[in-house]
């Protein structure tokens, strides 16, 4: 028993255990996603997060300890963002042709995301820092946290809301746009990138490469626009 | 694979330095993305060289969000106290924003004649 405790204390101090756990949890999530015939409700991020959250709870491990191992995976968000250049380059003729539709989709999607979120939260009596934390939730996590800090939100709450938005958007986008009979892959991808950032973009790439390319552009453009409209919208709702 | 990773990290590094040095509103990786597209336009051979490993990286984009996602455990209490309102605000606004964005995109594509028949979803699989 003493040996097991020694091994545990050794493992819990290095990055190996939680790095491995993160990859295994994702493999489980991805396998479940494939087993569910790539249905959007079986989102691999959601499944992996649930598996890891349970594991942390069972072992009494706090998030900081976990993140020391998982940060190597987290770091790859940066290179993966740079890598979005590839589908963008490959789809450049399509992108040039779609400048006006993209502008319209950006203004509508970004504006509605911020204003409707604040309106619904306000109706439930949410005010102050929580309201400010909500305003940038459709943008990619590092940008959203920067905006939240500037307008008086709580960065930690914003990070959680960004995650929930991304997973929900990734789950809802396919049935929602099928219902609305939107067949244009460019519109399908772009709108989910604007509303549900990188997790929506990851979902778009699972379905169609053109959708993924437009989703990446939507995410990037929305990061810039939300930085401008979130403070204005918050003032409108008296935050 | 390693060569491609070095190229991508190089662009991220340059992007990060440019973003900070010039106080740009864009995060470093996004600046790196723009520089990489520009470089591929100038030298199409670069695109062909890095395409396989880059697309492989993007196939598993979901994985890279998992560590930040697990961060939700640290804010569980905070989320529970604000409860229903935040959940409904997130869900309602996401549905509305996706619908508004996609509808605005397709309407303007029709008005400006910039529809693209090669980018249409095959409806037979619905």
From TrEMBL, chain A:
Its main location: membrane. It is found in: Membrane. The keyword Transmembrane helix applies. It is a multi-pass membrane protein. The chain crosses the membrane at residues 6-29, 41-60, 72-89, 101-121, 157-177, 213-234. InterPro entries: CidB/LrgB. Keywords: Membrane, Transmembrane, Transmembrane helix. It comes from the Bacteria. This is LrgB family protein. It comes from Paracoccus marinaquae.
From TrEMBL, chain B:
It is found in: Cell membrane. The chain crosses the membrane at residues 29-46, 58-78, 84-108. It is a multi-pass membrane protein. InterPro entries: LrgA/CidA. Its main location: membrane. The keyword Lipid metabolism does not apply. Keywords: Cell membrane, Membrane, Transmembrane, Transmembrane helix. This is CidA/LrgA family protein. It comes from Paracoccus marinaquae.
